[in-house]
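Is this the right way to post structure tokens for a design question? Let me know if I should format differently. Anyway, here goes:
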């Protein structure tokens, strides 16, 4: 169990079974689905939310982005293995009513700090679809650098598009 991390008036905290209704409310949004991998379903159902919360127990790398009242998004990182063991891929999403308020920027900063402090990492990276400029800005505001454009690397919503790879590296 992780102690909640305060980020302004919001927090990063553990997912709870009680988050299922809020998770369905915010995650069942095509605009979110357009910017995440297909493992994040659309439509997003109660059974999807229950399965997600049940699945993310150990290691503790996935968190709810929350107000005092409810979960409004999610953030997490996947620890890599083998020769990539000092890297992790970070991903995040936020419910549409909470966009453009700086919440994702605060969440990425806090999650990055937590990841580097609690795991033997030197590199966090994220891949952003070419049309998701807002997410690219979130990463850039947190010191992530554009490493490259992966041409025609993503098939989403019937289109083959480029993705942008960003990374934050510490010594």
């Amino acid at each position: 169990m992780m102690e909640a991390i305060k980020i302004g008036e919001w927090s990063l905290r553990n997912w709870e079974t009680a988050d299922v209704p809020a998770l369905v409310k915010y995650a069942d949004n095509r605009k979110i689905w357009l910017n995440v991998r297909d493992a994040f379903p659309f439509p997003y159902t109660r059974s999807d939310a229950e399965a997600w919360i049940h699945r993310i127990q150990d290691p503790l790398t996935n968190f709810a982005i929350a107000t005092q009242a409810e979960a409004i998004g999610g953030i997490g990182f996947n620890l890599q293995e083998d020769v990539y063991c000092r890297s992790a891929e970070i991903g995040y999403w936020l419910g549409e009513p909470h966009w453009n308020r700086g919440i994702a920027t605060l969440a990425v900063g806090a999650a990055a700090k937590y990841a580097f402090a609690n795991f033997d990492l030197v590199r966090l990276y994220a891949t952003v679809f070419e049309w998701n400029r807002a997410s690219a800005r979130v990463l850039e505001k947190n010191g992530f650098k554009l490493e490259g454009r992966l041409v025609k690397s993503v098939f989403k919503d019937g289109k083959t598009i480029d993705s942008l790879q960003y990374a934050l590296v510490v010594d």
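Format looks fine. Someone answered above. Worth noting: The chain has a mean pLDDT of 95. Helices lie at 20-27, 30-33, 46-55, 103-118, 133-141.
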